[in-house]
Write a structure and sequence with these properties.
The chain is an alpha+beta fold. The chain has 2 domains: about 30 residues; about 90 residues, Band 7 domain (Tetrahydropterin Synthase, Chain A), CATH 3.30.479. It has 5 helices and 3 strands; from the N terminus they run ααββαααβ. α4 crosses α5.
């Protein structure tokens, strides 16, 4: 009898605590959107004199992290501007350059986080002139 109760308790735990994740353990599309913060278009000069317009979606690991990131919006934009001002247009060419920027921003922004962490930074639009 106690085995049945333990099995039932474990089943209920997984249903309520893990039931919102997809079968492979990754967050669902709804959870990604729920825990993400949109960074509207930022325009700044690049190191070589070109300028860039770029926007992001930043995925956090939960609601507390999302709220914290929203409060730190000015710091997020500051980190983005500083990072971009040290790059040239050629540094952002191709997939490799963009992925490196996303990873660098993720690492830099996670240094500010106290209530969770940033899972992924996504570039949602970019124009370099």
């Amino acid at each position: 009898m106690s085995v049945v109760i333990i099995a039932l308790a474990v089943g209920l735990y997984y249903f309520f605590m893990k039931g919102t994740e997809s079968a492979n353990g990754k967050p669902t599309a709804d959870e990604v959107v729920e825990n993400s913060v949109e960074i509207p278009e930022v325009t700044t000069n690049l190191l070589n004199g070109d300028y860039i317009r770029i926007s992001f979606m930043i995925q956090t690991d939960g609601k507390k992290a999302k709220k914290e990131l929203e409060k730190r919006n000015f710091q997020v934009e500051n980190v983005i501007i500083k990072k971009l001002s040290g790059l040239e247009a050629k540094d952002l060419e191709g997939t490799e350059g963009k992925v490196k920027l996303e990873n660098d921003l993720k690492e830099s922004l996670n240094e500010y986080m106290e209530e969770g962490k940033i899972i992924q930074v996504y570039i949602t639009s970019t124009i370099i002139q």
